Amino acid sequence: MTHPLNTLSAALFAPLVGSAFALRGAEGTALAVSLARCEEHPRATMPGGPRTAFSLELSCPAAGVPAFTGGTFLLWHETLGEIGPLYVERILPTGYGPGLAVFQIIFT
């Protein structure tokens, strides 16, 4: 199953917080991550936009994560299938425990 990007919403991902996902990069990077947060951002939504802006934060142990700050990835989940390509940015793990790598995807 594949989802067109313009149909994705926070409601699709919110029940999956804590679930296992995979990030697959074009250069062969593959990361096993879990969905740590799904947050809506109404104030960042364009007036008349088709959906409320939202973001996803995914985390995994930092050990073994290749050095990169951001790039294009496919996001995969066992019930959602493959989604993307998406731009994924590595962010500071503020509010997370030590030793974690955290990645963010923003949908506007």
Structure overview:
The protein is mainly beta. It has one domain (5-107). 4% of the residues lie in helices and 48% in strands. The chain contains one helix and six strands, in the order H-E-E-E-E-E-E. It has one helix at residues 10-13; strands at residues 20-25, 30-40, 54-61, 70-77, 81-91, 100-107. A six-stranded antiparallel β-barrel has the order 1-2-3-6-5-4. The radius of gyration is 14 Å and the shape is globular. It starts with 9 loop residues before the first helix and ends with a strand. 17% of the residues are buried.
Number of domains: 1
**Beta strands, count:** 6
State the separation between the terminal residues, measured CA to CA. 22 Å
Work out the helix count.
Answer: 1
Output the structural class: mainly beta
Radius of gyration: 14 Å
One letter per element, helices H and strands E, the order comes to HEEEEEE
In what range is the share of β-strand residues? over 45%
Shape: globular
Task: Write a concise synopsis of the structure shown.
The chain is mainly β and 108 residues long. Helix content is 4%, strand content 48%. The chain has 1 helix and 6 strands; from the N terminus they run αββββββ.
Detail the topology: elements first, then pairings:
Elements: H1 10-13, E1 20-25, E2 30-40, E3 54-61, E4 70-77, E5 81-91, E6 100-107
Antiparallel strand pairs: 1-2, 1-4, 2-3, 3-6, 4-5, 5-6
Describe this protein with a few key phrases.
single chain, 108 residues, mainly beta, 6-stranded antiparallel barrel, 6 strands, 4% helix, globular
